[in-house]
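Session log. Operator J.P. requested a structure for one protein chain; no other inputs attached. Running the standard single-chain path with token output.
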Amino acid sequence: MPGAVRTSVFVGASVDGFIARPDGRFDFLPDTPEPHGFDEFFASIDALLMGRKTYETALSFGNWPYGSKPVFVWSSRPLAAAPTGAVLERLSGTPADIFDALAARHIRHAYVDGGQTVQSFLRAGLIDRVVVTRVPVLIGSGISIFGPLERDLRLRHVMTRHFPSGLVQSEYEVVAA
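Structure written below.
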């Protein structure tokens, strides 16, 4: 993939492939999961890129979960006010435009989060790495991790590990077409 920005997805999902219920709730995720690499992953990123819906969900957490890491929200509409201390910027345009904007800001590793945002960036060929942590539950319907694709997207397996709670985490690199 061209450019200096490395992009990664790190997501929890039900075994049947949903990151949230149809109404956006993710109450099936463990309340207190054992350490599963997220803190180390988060320390490796320079910034987060998320969609507006994911941003609004993050606002509902009470405490801003991202500290002083820069957060870029992909939205064509104005955003609700940022919490005190949040480093936040709204970006709009195509995935390629957003990718270029991150590169122009010297972001070297971005965490891409949110169902529609992840799906759009995957379809545009702008995701390098995918880490999926499967929660041992079937929820039947909801918001898909990846959604429909116009063509197969080849992945190279990097590693899989499991945890005492039953979580199974697999990491993949996206193979360039």
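Operator note: The helical segments are 38-44, 52-59, 95-104, 115-123.
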